[in-house]
Amino acid sequence: MSTVAPSDWTTRPAPEGPQGWIERATEVAAVLATDAAARDRAGATPYDEVRLLKDSGLVTLLGPVGHGGGGQDWPTAYRVIREVSKADGSIGQLLGYHYLWNWAARLVGTREQWEAVEAEAARQRWFFGGAVNPRDKDVVVRDEGGTLVLSGRKSFSTGSKVSDVTVLEGVLEGTDSHVFAIVPSDSDGLTFHGDWDNIGQRLTESGSVTLDGVRVPWSAAAGYVDKAFRPRVYNTLNVPTIQLVFARFYLGIAAGALETAAVYTRTKARSWLHGGHERAADEPYVIDTYGDLTAKLWAAEALADRVAGEGQRLHDAPDAVTEQDRGEFEVRVAAVKARATEVALEVTNRIFEVTGARSTASAEGLDRFWRNVRTHTLHDPVAYKRREVGRFVLDGALPEPTWYS
């Protein structure tokens, strides 16, 4: 991968304000875009790409300024995810998940826990992975006095193979209580199998992981005090937050697809021999299609921006979040997820209508945009997101907090 020399970023001051960080993300995206199609075909473990995120400082975006972090908010993080995803959907997903796992200590943990995690993460520029697939319930957490021992398997562990630390989750033996803990990714007993082999998001290292007696102190169990969990409504904000992350890299991938297709249309596409136009870019149906897809994308982005702002108000006052606040926010997020899914699938599919048969050549790599969106949008059925919105409109019903709502 072509890279910017580390001194280009490490010797420059950190970006200032949201726009500065978005511009930094645009610089990172420009590097990733130079060989995105080739890296997608190769499917190699993205060590260099994660180093790029670290060197650029993007991994510290949400961290405390006093410890070297960017001190930015979630609306800025979502914009950064979108910019990176325009060039490479896999790396956009990795960055988005990193932000959530970095924030997970704040969502679930005690103030003492999350302050310690965020400070160290910013100082060391940790990259976070996570093995928290909620559909796998075979990780058992055994209490051995002052130590917890985690054993079992997770089908998915996005980013963990290239991470410094991994968020683990399991069920405390003999109870229904879930335990979250952050551990070094090279911990004894933690094995990442590197078996992610899907049609899209190929560089996300989302393969399975085995936990064979991974030991953590009770003090690492997020949100537990004297072996008892202290719940807050704010704990349940993890789902709408990650769903907004999903929507942002879907829309970023769609934006990248449109930009890449437009360049192809202007420079390589041939006009239809019976259309009466010298350039493909002058074909009325081509112009109409780009206008239609862009309008739909801009509308989805505007909704996502609006809802991100609504969510930030909850993040700014976590102890004041009520069940009503959380439920209404989840409904709004569900609407964003539904529209982002539909728009991204349409954009990444229909770009071929305005680029032509030759654009399907493997060397062009235009198919990666659709493959990436199609793969991840199956994470959870979008019909259930529309149902959340519909039930709220018809009955005023709020979604019950679950692992997916």
UniProtKB/TrEMBL annotation:
SUPFAM superfamilies to which the protein is assigned, alphabetical: Acyl-CoA dehydrogenase C-terminal domain-like, Acyl-CoA dehydrogenase NM domain-like
Record-annotated Acyl-CoA dehydrogenase/oxidase N-terminal domain positions: 28-115
Pfam families: Acyl-CoA_dh_2 (PF08028), Acyl-CoA_dh_N (PF02771)
Superkingdom of source: Bacteria
GO MF annotation terms: 3-methylbutanoyl-CoA dehydrogenase activity; flavin adenine dinucleotide binding; monooxygenase activity
Record domain Acyl-CoA dehydrogenase C-terminal: where: 244-379
GO biological process, one term: L-leucine catabolic process
Membrane spanning residue stretches: none
InterPro entries for the chain: Acyl-CoA_DH_C (IPR013107), Acyl-CoA_Oxase/DH_mid-dom_sf (IPR046373), AcylCo_DH-like_C (IPR036250), AcylCoA_DH/ox_N (IPR013786), AcylCoA_DH/ox_N_sf (IPR037069), AcylCoA_DH/oxidase_NM_dom_sf (IPR009100)
Keyword set, alphabetical order: Flavoprotein, Monooxygenase, Oxidoreductase
Protein name: Acyl-CoA dehydrogenase family protein
Organism this protein belongs to: Streptomyces nigrescens
Lineage, top ranks: Bacteria, Bacillati, Actinomycetota, Actinomycetes, Kitasatosporales
